[in-house]
Amino acid sequence: MASRRLRTATLIGTSLGFVAMGSAACVPAASGGSLKSTGTPTTSASISQADKAEGAKAHPQLLEEFGGTVSGPQAVYVESVGKTIAVQSGLSNARGDFTVTLLNSPVNNAFAIPGGYVYVTRQLTALMNNEAELAGVLGHEVGHVAARHAAKRQQAAQRNQIIGVLGSILSGVLLGDSSFGQFGQKLFSQGSQLLTLKYSRSQELEADNLGITYLKRAGYDPRAMATVLESLARQNALEAQLRGTSNQVPEWASTHPDPASRVRGALNQAGSDATGITNRDKFLTGIDGLVYGDDPKQGVVEGSKFTHPVLRFAFEAPNGFYMVNGTRAVSISGQSGKAQFSGGKLGGSLDAYIQTVFSGLTDSGQAKITPSSIERTSVNGIPAAYGVARVQSSNSNVDVVVFAYDFGNGQAYHFVTITQAGGAGVFNPMFRSLKRISASEAGSVKPRLLDVVTVKSGDTVRSLSQRMAYSDAQLERFLVLNGLQSNSTLTVGQKVKVVTY
Fewest beta carbons within 10 Å, which of 13, 409, 460, 500? Predict the structure, then answer.
């Protein structure tokens, strides 16, 4: 886990959210089973040298932020599909001008940046059920670039910049409710996947429409845009149910409209009687074996417990809180508070480290947050210290706590928490739970893998769901993962996905 400053950063690209009633014209769907181009895109642009330079500079930063790349046959397959759909955009007719990357991230996300760089996470890829859905998602993101939405967002931000306690207009995954006011909305971010300004609805719909246009042009079934949106909506609902939240903001969606509200628009745009290839079996074969959920190299969330087998530590969230694991930070969220866990180089004393973390919570030009005092303690044999600062939010006072641990060899880890004034004690059990783990405990942490199986005689939705490597909601997880309903009937020879160890 690398060092992470818990403040916002510069806008670098476009981020996931796809489907429906934009202004670009659609061309007739290609017929037959082969992929081909059929005409000139409506957004005729090109990849300039400036765009290439910008993309090349941002690319390694994005790879670091999203856990690096997935290599192997799955990545090669995704790259091929991505280039096929990207050339439909008119940005370039040369497949070699596009760099398509499968990211090692457990977050449902996809995005593209100028210069021909297109990204999708393994987690979102695993949620899809055919090649047309993958092409639709990537086509939507390329559509944002072709329509130059990022540049328009930046211009709008410059005109309408909001100056708040942290001088930022961005919000993070932890902010499904507004109980902590404007301050809470600006304290936490979950990495580059959320370091983007919100697209306008018209921009989202235009990118949706462009993605559908690209699907038709390439010969894919354009209805795939609606089905992948439906899967995302169902996944959001399932995660909210499992976490006990009724108004969950999904990891990738704080900057995008709810996919559930856009499925019908996507289907209308595609045409209910549309045709085209989906390449379902080819797709499932192509993604078989992907790591699903958390990669142990980045730590694993199991219920209320987070374990990092490589760095050899573990901690538990308080009762009633849920965790989201990012590649460089863990987010903890509940009704009574928000928190984030990450680490960095100690360099000096814990006091100085804590002061540095507090300083990193504000942008330049804003008043620095300063703890009233810093207290020393010890947690499970680990030297620790903490500081508390009370901050005036837009409508109330909040307490910000930095609780840091000295792991030796110049390495420190810390929590940053925010609660209503006087409520910081809700996180005391979590602060006290951090501990080192043994080699045997670390070795027991195994990755979950996506396993594509062929339905045999006697297999049912319920029997196959029992193979899911979860202790809860096996049937619900299986149905959402495969785009099935509880009354769906499986046929012998059909391929389906299960998650195993």
Answer: 409
Residue 412 shares a structural domain with residue 491: no
Going from the C-alpha of 185 to that of each of 7, 51, 253, the distances in angstroms are: 11, 31, 15
Q: What SS3 state is found at 438?
A: coil
Residues 237 and 262 placed together within one structural domain of the fold: yes
pTM of the model: 0.79
Helix/strand/coil for 263: helix
> Is residue 400 located within the same domain as residue 468?
no
Q: pLDDT per residue over 36-65, tens digit each?
A: 444 434 444 578 999 999 999 999 999 988
- 211 sits in the region (left: phi over 0; alpha: psi -120 to 50; else beta) called alpha
Catalytic (active site) residue 141: yes
Question: Distance between CA atoms of 239 and 245, rounded to whole angstroms?
Answer: 8
Based on the fold, state whether residues 393 and 270 are members of the same structural domain. Answer: no
Parallel/antiparallel/unpaired status of strands 99-103 and 117-121: parallel
Catalytic residue among 54, 141, 230, 251: 141
Mean pLDDT over 422-450 rounds to 97
Contact 40, 179 (CB under 8 A): no
- Hunting for tokens 């100028």 — which residue is that? 114
